[in-house]
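Title: Comparing notes on inverse folding

I've been comparing how different people in this forum approach sequence design from structure. To keep things fair, I'm posting one structure and asking everyone to reply with a full sequence. Here's the target:
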């Protein structure tokens, strides 16, 4: 009897090729720290929605459009999104995937980013600026989990591809991409320093036709 894997959930994970100690890596780290220190509106929003940490999601969420530094990061990410979209089998004839949102997250120890997804987008992801040892991973949830009402627990030696939750640990300089409908979270963890990341969304738009 043949067994096939149907409806796979794909996650793209690789080093972006920006050494944390390189110029662009240092500049991004400095810019993230500067935003966290100076963005009063973002800090007020974070006090209500990102307790204990900082995110520019509620104040500066299109950084790639207003900062040449973040615009440069977008240009580095674009080819990876294109490659991921090809692997997903998307038909982009007459369409393009464009970054629509880009924001900074700073998470000290104990900060939680609860389960969520990114409505209205196609591909979402995170670039990791700083990841202290022991910092929380990016944790994905099996989208079928709510439908497994009577399923027994998985064996301890079951394949990770069959798990209800999968944690992806990243290093500074790594890029992780996933389809925007996939729920994910960052659980609390004990570590020293700050986990700093840049998150973003890509949406599908029709290419303009030349007359």
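Reply #1:
Here's my take.
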């Amino acid at each position: 009897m043949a067994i096939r894997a149907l409806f796979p959930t794909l996650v793209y994970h690789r080093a972006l090729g920006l050494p944390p100690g390189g110029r662009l890596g240092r500049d991004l780290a400095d810019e993230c720290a500067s935003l966290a220190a100076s963005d009063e509106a973002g800090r007020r929003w974070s006090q209500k929605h990102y307790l204990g940490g900082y995110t520019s999601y509620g104040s500066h969420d299109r950084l790639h459009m207003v900062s040449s530094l973040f615009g440069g990061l977008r240009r580095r990410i674009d080819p990876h999104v294109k490659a991921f979209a090809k692997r997903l089998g998307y038909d982009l004839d007459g369409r393009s995937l464009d970054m629509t949102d880009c924001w900074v997250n700073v998470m000290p120890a104990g900060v939680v980013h609860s389960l969520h997804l990114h409505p209205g987008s196609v591909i979402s992801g995170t670039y990791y600026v700083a990841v202290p040892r022991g910092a929380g991973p990016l944790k994905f949830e099996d989208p079928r989990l709510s439908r497994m009402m009577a399923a027994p627990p998985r064996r301890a030696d079951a394949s990770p591809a069959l798990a209800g939750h999968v944690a992806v640990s990243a290093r500074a300089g790594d890029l992780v991409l996933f389809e925007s409908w996939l729920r994910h979270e960052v659980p609390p963890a004990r570590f020293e320093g700050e986990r700093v990341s840049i998150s973003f969304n890509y949406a599908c738009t029709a290419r303009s036709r030349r007359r």
